[in-house]
Design goal:
The protein is of the alpha/beta class. The protein contains seven helices and nine strands; from the N terminus they run ββαααβαβαββαβαββ. The chain has a single domain, classed as 3-Layer(aba) Sandwich (Rossmann fold), CATH 3.40.50. It binds S-adenosylmethionine (SAM).
């Protein structure tokens, strides 16, 4: 259980714990579609904080892929990134509804991450970072490639795609990273998460220094 603050339109929402309802909603989503959800419990705030540390709060637009019950979202907003600079993609209707309810004012895109560009306010090349909670390891190579292609359409030069995984190894198939000319960097491992998770950051080859 934990506490975090989310800001919307300059106001601070009430401090909020991951509620019993969040756990139940998350578990139901897993029961409905285990491969799409990938986990039976939301990420910990420690994992969320490490992922959010890859954002520059004054650096422009951020998109989150796979918002779930908002575990990473709250840590992204806690960096002081303005709420109008964040868009959250969540394919599951029930989870998307929960996010709209708990974080009014935040833009939730109820669409597949692999087809989100047409809905993104920042447009092509308009994002500094994509924070992804998608269960990439459970996805086919084709779906991984579709999602990462879409992500790097949205990211500006030097932009980063930040992903956690429950494996100590990078989550993206090597052939997919090669096909898209991406390089990967390990950010760190969080043991205070169920299960422990490792965070990786991808960028276009040779562009890391632009980030
Ligand atoms: C492992 S959960 C992570 C949720 C949350 N970010 C967290 O860390 O607790 C993965 C989430 O991604 C969503 N998802 C799966 N595939 C998706 C897709 N193609 N497009 C958008 N969201 C997707 C699922 O519905 C689920 O909410």
């Amino acid at each position: 259980m934990w506490v975090a603050m989310a800001r919307t339109d300059g106001t601070v929402l009430a401090e909020r714990k991951t509620s019993a309802g969040d756990y139940a909603r998350f578990l139901h989503a897993w029961i409905r579609k285990p491969r799409q959800n990938g986990s039976i419990v939301p990420s910990s705030p420690y994992l969320g904080r490490l992922m959010a540390s890859q954002i520059d709060p004054a650096g422009g637009r951020v998109m989150e892929f796979g918002g779930g019950t908002g575990a990473l979202t709250r840590e992204i907003l806690a960096t002081s990134l303005p709420v109008d600079q964040l868009e959250v993609v969540e394919i599951d209707a029930d989870l998307a509804r929960g996010l709209r309810r708990s974080m009014p004012g935040l833009r939730i895109l109820e669409t597949p991450a692999q087809a989100v560009a047409g809905h993104a306010l920042g447009g092509v090349g308009g994002y500094q970072c994509i924070i992804s909670g998608l269960p990439l390891l459970a996805f086919s190579k084709q779906l991984q490639q579709d999602i990462l292609s879409e992500a790097f359409l949205l990211l500006r030069p030097g932009g980063t795609f930040v992903q956690f995984t429950y494996s100590p190894r990078p989550p993206l198939a090597r052939s997919v990273a090669h096909a898209l000319d991406l390089e990967v960097k390990k950010i760190g491992t969080i043991v205070r998460n169920v299960p422990p998770a490792t965070v990786f950051s991808y960028c276009r080859a040779g562009e890391r220094q632009l980030a």
